[in-house]
Amino acid sequence: MLRPRVGHIQFINCLPLYYGLVQNNVLLDVELVKGTPTELNKWLLEGKLDISPISSIEYCRNYKDLMLMPNLAVAADGEVKSILFISKV
Predict the structure, then answer these.
(1) Domains of the chain
(2) Where are the alpha helices (DSSP H) in the chain?
(3) What are the tens digits of pLDDT across the range 21-79?
(4) What letters, b where the CB count within 10 A reaches 16 and e where it falls short, cover 46-58?
(5) Strand partners, 6
(6) 42 phi/psi in degrees, rounded to 5
(7) pTM for this predicted structure
(8) I want to staple 21 with a disulfide (CB 3.0 to 4.6 A). Which of 26, 41, 66, 71 is the partner?
(9) From residue 82, how far is each of 12, 13, 67 by CA, in Å?
């Protein structure tokens, strides 16, 4: 049986998710695939990953083909300087 392929972004804001996998010895049961957010978006949509963080815009574009995992997100209730929303409007 193939191990689930799980996308991994090496960013500090994803550490809590991967820390949980390590603490619960789940990493032995999955294939961890490292990549940039853009690469993981692409690989998940191509079916090369089974589970992965994905950008919110890619989820919105492809919501019919994806299953959102409830109660799991990288989020903040304050200012986040690593993400910018820019508009000409």
Answers:
(1) 1-89 (3.40.190.10)
(2) 15-23, 37-45, 56-61
(3) 778 777 778 888 999 999 999 999 999 999 999 988 999 999 999 999 888 777 778 88
(4) eeebeebbbeeeb
(5) 32, 51
(6) -60, -50
(7) 0.76
(8) 26
(9) 11, 10, 26
